[in-house]
Amino acid sequence: MTPAAEGPPARPLRRARTLWLLAASVVLLAPAPASAQLFFASRPDPPFTIGPLMIRARVDEGAGAVTVNVLWSLVIPASLRPDEIAQDLYLLWPGEVQADTTPGKPEAALAKYVQERGFSVIGEGRLGLFAKTISESGGSGPGEAQPGGAPFVVFVQEGGALGLSPPATFIRIPWTPRFSDRGWLMDLRMRVKGLIKPRKATWTEELFIGGRY
User: Is residue 62 part of a domain?
Assistant: First the structure.
C-alpha cells in the first residue's frame, strides 16, 4: 500500500488500492480464526521487514475491552542508513479499538482515505505510541512516549451480500528514529473491544466452574 509519508495520498496507485481493498476485505469478512493484523509501509517494496513482532494482552474476566500491546522493531539491511528508508507505517487491525488519553485531534486525512475506498468510518482518535529500551528490564519499563501517538479510524463495510461487516481499525504509525534502533522496541498500546467472548456452557459447567470465555 502506498500512503505518502505525510499522510494517505489523494490518488494512490491502482495496484496499491487493489491490495488495500483486498487486505481490508480479508480482515472484515474472514472467519474469526483467520483474522490477523497486517503492517503496511508508506512506499511500495520497502527494504526492511518487521521483526521481532510480539502481541501481548491483559485479560480481565468480564472486561468489555482488552488492553493490547503490539511491540516490534525493524530489520534494516546494513548497507542502508535509517534516514534513507524513513517512512510512516500503517497497521490494519481486525477489530474495533478505543481511543485513549493521548492528546491530539483525529486525523481527517486518514478518515478520508478509508471513505474514498467505500468504507464507513464509525470511530477515530489516537493511540499511545511508546519506545522501550531493551537494555532496561528487557523492555518491560514504561517506555518513552512519542508525541501525538498514532492516529486511527475504525471502519465497516455497509451493504453488499453479507450486510454490515464487523469493524476493523486502520492506524497510522508516524516514523521515529527509534524504529530503526535495534536497542529499542516500539510499543503501540490500545484497548480492543469484542476480543473476549463468552463461550456457551452446559448448566453443570456454569454450576461448578462458572462462565467461560
Answer: yes
Domain residues for 178? 14-208
DSSP-derived secondary structure letter, 123 = E
CB 179 within 8 A of CB 75: no
Domain membership flag for residue 53? yes
Please say whether the beta carbons of 160 and 143 come within 8 A.
no
Residues 34-46 pLDDT 10s? 456 788 899 888 8
Give how many domains the chain has, as a whole number.
1
Is 182 domain-assigned?
yes
Is 1 inside a domain boundary? no
Return the C-alpha torsion angle 4, 10, 11, 14, nearest 10. 80
Sign of torsion, CA 202 192 66 51? positive
The CA-to-CA distance between both ends of the chain, in Å, stands at: 36
Mean pLDDT of 89-102: 89
Which amino acid does the sequence have at 17?
A: R
